[in-house]
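User: Before I run my own analysis I want an independent prediction to cross-check against. Here's the chain; please return only the structure tokens and, at the end, one sentence I can use as a sanity check.
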Amino acid sequence: MGGWQVSETYFITNRKCLTVGHFVTSCCFSSVIGGLLSAHLLAPRAGVTVEEGWPCQGPLLRLAVDVAERLLPGWYPDLS
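Assistant: Structure tokens:
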């Protein structure tokens, strides 16, 4: 696996700790991030009231950034 860094991500749900490979987690959460960004950009078309400063601000955008920042240390551990 030349060039790939393999690490693990831990999730605690229902009092159980799950260990998931970082690559798999990243694939799943990249879909989540894409969905959040799409929903953020399409919110006005759906009649959702957006914050002042949209499209550079909003709860879905902040959530997408939060998920991305949690994944980043798995790819670039020096940034954590």
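Sanity check: Residues 22-42 form the longest helix (21 residues).
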